[in-house]
Design goal:
The chain is 60% helix and 2% strand. The two termini are 69 Å apart. It has 362 residues and is mostly helical. Among the domains are: 170 residues, no CATH class; 69 residues, no CATH class.
Length: 362
C-alpha cells in the first residue's frame, strides 16, 4: 500500500467509524434483530452514499477495504448479539452498494471462523431467520474471502493500534442482570411496593385486587440466582468441551510421536543392513576403494565403454594418415602425385594418432 493510500485511510477512518457507531446505536435502541428495522435506519441515514465522495479507482477500492475492515471488528465478540447482527446487515448493504468493479470481497480470518459459526448456530437456535438468511445469501454469492488476517498488515507503528478501541456500550456483558438488579434497586423496589400496599389499604377496594405481584423483590432475587446458576452451568459445559478437545489433541500428538519413532527405527535398521553388506578388502588392497556387492556398478559401464571404443571404425584423420604413409611409389612409375605432400620423417611421426592407454587397470 502506498503512502498516499495510508494517509487516505487515516483521514477517512475516524468519520466512517463514527457513522457506523451511530447506525449501530440507533439499531440497538430498537431492541430487535429484524432486518426490516435495520433497513429503515439505513435508508433514513442514506448510508449507501458513503462511497460517492471518491474520485479515483484507487481511492474507491481502498475506502471499500477500509469500510469492510471497520465493520468486521463489530461482527466479532465481545460485542452483543444485536450489534453483531447489525454488522452482518452492514456487510450486506455495503457489499451491494460499493462502486469498484470487480467488487471487493469481505476478508474473514481463519482464526475467527469458529466465532462466526457459533453466531450463526445461535441465531438458528433462537429462530432469528433474518440473520441466518442474510448470512446464507452472502455465503452463496461467494462474498467472503478467507485469509490469514482480516486486513492487510502494515509496519507503521502509528496505525498498528488504530482499531483497538472497543465501544463499551455495544459489549455483551455477562453480569448485566446482576448489575441492573443490585441492592439499591431492590431496596427502592421494596419501598415502592410498601407504599403501594399502604395506598391500597386506604382505598375502598378489596385487598385481592393488585396491580403488582406480592413479594416482588424476593421473586426478582430468585430469578437472578437462577440466571446465574444457568450461566455458570453453561460456562462449565464449555470448559469441559474445551478440555475434551485438548485431551484429543494430546492423544493425537502422542500417536504421531509414536509413528515418528517407529519410522526412525525402521530407517536405522535399513541403514545398518545396507552397511553390513560391504565386503572387507585385504591389507594389501585397503588403499583402494571398497567394492560393493551390487549389480550395475561403475566397472560394468567401463567395460561397455571400452568395447564400444574397440568396435568403432577409424576416424577420417586416421584413415588419411594411413593412406599417406603406407602408399609406396612404384619404382618404374615416374608419375608424380601432386596431391601427395612431401613430409619429413618427424612430420610423419607427428601425423600418427597416439595410442590411448587405460588409466586404471580393471
Amino acid at each position: 500500500m502506498t503512502t498516499a493510500a495510508v494517509k487516505f485511510c487515516d483521514y477517512f477512518w475516524v468519520p466512517f467509524k463514527s457513522d457506523c457507531e451511530e447506525l449501530l446505536g440507533r439499531f440497538q435502541q430498537t431492541d430487535s434483530v429484524r432486518y426490516e428495522e435495520f433497513a429503515a435506519i439505513w435508508r433514513d441515514m442514506d448510508f449507501s452514499s458513503v462511497f460517492y465522495g471518491m474520485t479515483t479507482r484507487l481511492e474507491k477500492r481502498t475506502f471499500t477495504r477500509l469500510a469492510f475492515a471497520t465493520v468486521y471488528s463489530y461482527f466479532l465478540p465481545p460485542y452483543s448479539f444485536q450489534i453483531r447482527a447489525g454488522a452482518l446487515y452492514m456487510f450486506y448493504g455495503l457489499y451491494h452498494a460499493q462502486i469498484p468493479l470487480p467488487k471487493e470481497k469481505i476478508w474473514i480470518a481463519l482464526k475467527d471462523w469458529v466465532h462466526i459459526q457459533n453466531f450463526v448456530s445461535e441465531a438458528l437456535s433462537c429462530q432469528h431467520l433474518d440473520v441466518v438468511y442474510v448470512y446464507r445469501k452472502l455465503e452463496s454469492e461467494k462474498v467472503f474471502y478467507y485469509t490469514a488476517m482480516p486486513k492487510q498488515l502494515t509496519f507503521d507503528a502509528k496505525r498498528r493500534f488504530l482499531n483497538k478501541d472497543v465501544n463499551e456500550e455495544f459489549q455483551d456483558r455477562s453480569a448485566r442482570v446482576a448489575e441492573l438488579l443490585n441492592a439499591d434497586t431492590l431496596d427502592e423496589i421494596a419501598n415502592v411496593q410498601n407504599h403501594y400496599e399502604k395506598l391500597k389499604q386506604g382505598l375502598p377496594v378489596t385487598s385481592s385486587i393488585s396491580v403488582t405481584t406480592v413479594n416482588l423483590t424476593s421473586k426478582l432475587q430468585e430469578c437472578i440466582l437462577e440466571f446465574q446458576h444457568w450461566q455458570e452451568k453453561r460456562k462449565a459445559a464449555k470448559n469441559k468441551k474445551n478440555k475434551g478437545t485438548t485431551v484429543k489433541e494430546e492423544e493425537g500428538t502422542q500417536d504421531t510421536e509414536f509413528e515418528c519413532s517407529m519410522r526412525a527405527d525402521l530407517l536405522a535398521s535399513i541403514k545398518s543392513k545396507s552397511y553390513s553388506r560391504t565386503t572387507k578388502a585385504s591389507r594389501s588392497r585397503r588403499h583402494r576403494q571398497v567394492e560393493m556387492d551390487t549389480s550395475g556398478s561403475g566397472t560394468d559401464h567401463a567395460h561397455e565403454y571400452l568395447e564400444t571404443r574397440k568396435n568403432r571404425p577409424p576416424s577420417l584423420k586416421a584413415r588419411t594418415c594411413k593412406n599417406i604413409i603406407t602408399i609406396k611409389k612404384d619404382e618404374n612409375d615416374d608419375r608424380t602425385q601432386h596431391w601427395l605432400l612431401s613430409s619429413r620423417e618427424e612430420d610423419r611421426k607427428a601425423l600418427k594418432r597416439p595410442v590411448q592407454r587405460n588409466r586404471f587397470k580393471l
